[in-house]
Design brief:
Chain A: Pfam families: ABC_tran. The structure holds two protein chains of two kinds. By secondary structure, chain A is α/β, with parallel strands linked by helices. Chain A is built from seven helices and nine strands, in the order E-E-E-H-E-E-H-H-H-E-H-E-H-E-E-H. Chain B has helices at about 15-30, 40-65, 80-90, 95-125, 130-145, 150-155, 160-185, 190-195, 200-240, 250-255, 260-295, 310-320; strands at about 35, 305.
């Protein structure tokens, strides 16, 4: 595996010719984000430029303080960059480490709310919500409330809800970070399946290098304080992948070496 | 099996998908909790007996004091005497007219309190200036004993219904407003953020996320507001005697005037019972359902969380 220059990026397994005119789903150009003012100002992101192709599964990896969550907020439009531009084609949905379901609504009602806020007619909401729960294999528990579901099931409802928002671009902020390892592995398979079926563009932030190698078409490594792009890695492993496959492990090892270098840089 | 309408993946992945489906189903089965409820009779009994026992204890102490002749009988009658007076009163139109009159005042007063307290509470959560201006004053009002308002109320409104309403609203509205303010303040930022990313703004954010999320605290405020309004109302009916009306406070007042200790205690019991009934049957139920729905309260009669895993193990053992 080689570190790719931005102009020669390919999408791993995705069939895209490098010479074709580029119309990325997300274009982040020279983005800098500072918090605070004057001497106390902290630069969270420094001159980040990054394109995410349509249908691409991009994983962003970095140690603490690399501004991963800040970057997602900028793409989601919840915050504005200090300088630079963020362009997004289509609708954006955001998923967090916690499912953030509304606890007084049942699973299906949570999905329905997203449909309602998108302007779907009342009569069509229930069948559409049930179809989406079907997609994440949760139709049977449609009438349960979040506290009656497991953490993994809650995240799948959150995924259905994100799809209900009509998202073309799905931003995921360590969505499986709080789950046990077995559930996480199964949800990797599930997310891969749903992403392919729905032709989603995904930006997936994680601390977990192996997870990034398991899921991503491409991995972007961010430096910490300030966050800069330290390297990009294509993941040309055929799907469906398994987390225990040697190819995934090899790429994870390679990214880890770079990540450790980054971390050591902060020792002095 | 779910429908395949949404599937677009190639047939080459079918095997992987089947395996994935099985794994998901397996995990779900292992992690789902099962709900079971005890029979209705048992639940009622377990809810009722501690209350019955507590009442019996109070009556026993009362009877003991009567037997010891702590006070003369015409001042402190026995539970039996009061009980028979109360029983007889239950079949008179007078008691029910008084209850009706008082309840009408209570309902009107509480409704007005909800309108005013609700509007105030929402306004304070919406406008920062207003919060700085009146936020702490609302809490101050809450600590003001309602009876202290009556001299002013009588000056302003004379001995009228308005005087009573004025004090009832002053007693209840601050609690209701405070419930809303505290409720909105305690909405988890994550839920707001989830609402905003779904496209909820302004009114829809309030209607679909903030208000429902604030409900547990709002209901507590309403419950407290009811207690305050009921207390203020009783004080009002004792002090503001409007000729030609029969209310519970009015009855209490005249029972004292005529040294009718039996009637006095009987009326007090009626007032207490109404307060408890409204609190538990109306607000208790609302509060419970709000909390249960959010998973903030586990139903006591639910069996301790039992996983399906155990049922599966039992089924497996049965097969063996």
């Amino acid at each position: 595996m080689t570190v790719l220059e931005p102009h020669q990026l390919s999408r791993g397994a995705a069939p895209v010719a490098g010479a074709a005119p580029r119309d990325p789903a997300v274009r982040i150009a020279g983005v800098t984000k500072r918090f605070g003012a004057g001497a106390a100002a902290v630069t969270a992101l420094d001159q980040i430029s990054l394109d995410v192709e349509r249908g691409e599964f991009l994983c962003i990896v970095g140690a603490s303080g690399c501004g991963k969550s800040t970057l997602l907020n900028l793409v989601a439009g919840l915050d504005a960059p200090t300088s630079g531009t963020v362009e997004v084609q289509g609708r954006v949905a955001l998923m967090f480490q916690e499912a953030a379901l509304l606890p007084w609504r049942t699973a299906v009602q949570n999905v329905e709310l997203a449909l309602k806020l998108r302007g779907v007619a009342r009569k069509e909401r229930r069948p559409q919500a049930l179809d989406l729960l079907d997609l994440v294999r949760l139709r049977d528990v449609a009438d349960r409330r979040p506290h009656e579901l497991s953490g993994g099931m809650r995240q799948r409802v959150a995924l259905a809800r994100a799809l209900a928002q009509g998202a073309d671009v799905l931003l995921m902020d360590e969505p499986f970070g709080a789950l046990d390892a077995i559930t996480r592995d199964v949800l990797h398979d599930e997310l891969e399946r749903v992403a392919a079926e729905q032709q989603l563009t995904i930006v997936f932030v994680t601390h977990n290098v192996r997870e990034a190698a398991r899921l991503g078409d491409r991995i972007v490594l961010l430096t910490s304080r300030p966050g800069r792009v330290a390297g990009e890695f294509g993941v040309p492993v055929e799907r469906p992948r398994r987390i225990e496959s040697p190819e995934v492990s090899a790429i994870a090892a390679e990214v880890t070496v770079r990540l450790r270098e980054e971390v050591r840089r902060h020792a002095d | 099996m779910p429908t395949d309408a949404l599937r677009t993946a190639g047939a080459g992945h079918a095997v992987a998908h089947d395996r994935l489906d099985q794994e998901l189903a397996g995990l779900d089965q292992l992690e789902l909790t099962e709900r079971t409820r005890a029979p209705v009779g048992l639940r009622l009994w377990s809810a009722a007996w501690p209350k019955v026992a507590a009442v019996m204890l109070v009556v026993a102490i009362w009877q003991f004091l009567v037997w010891r002749e702590w006070k003369p009988r015409f001042v402190l009658p026995s539970p039996l005497e009061v009980g028979s007076t109360l029983w007889n009163d239950l079949f008179t139109a007078e008691l029910w007219r008084a209850v009706g009159y008082t309840m009408r005042r209570a309902v009107v007063g509480f409704a007005v309190s909800i309108l005013i307290g609700g509007a105030l509470g929402i306004a304070v959560t919406r406008f920062r200036v207003l919060r700085t201006a009146v936020g702490s004053m609302i809490t101050g009002l809450q600590t003001m004993p309602s009876i202290a308002w009556f001299p002013l109320a009588i000056l302003l409104f004379k001995l009228t219904e308005q005087a009573i309403l004025f004090v009832v609203v002053l007693g209840a509205a601050p609690s209701i407003a405070n419930g809303i303010i505290a409720g909105v303040d305690s909405v988890p930022p994550l839920l707001r953020r989830a609402g905003v990313t779904m496209g909820a703004r302004g009114v829809s954010l309030y209607r679909d996320v903030v208000i429902p999320a604030a409900m547990p605290t709002v209901v507590t405020g309403l419950k407290q507001g009811w207690a305050f309004s009921w207390r203020s109302l009783m004080a009002g009916e004792l002090l503001v005697i409007i000729p030609g009306t029969t209310s519970l406070g009015h009855q209490l007042h005249f029972a004292r005037e005529f040294s009718d200790a039996d009637g006095l205690i009987a009326t007090m019991i009626v007032i207490l019972v109404i307060g408890i009934l409204v609190d538990s049957l109306v607000f208790g139920r609302i509060e419970r359902s709000v909390l249960l729905r959010r998973g903030l309260l586990t139903e006591k009669a639910y069996e301790p969380v039992r996983t399906m895993r155990r049922r599966e193990l039992m089924a497996a053992a049965a097969v063996r």
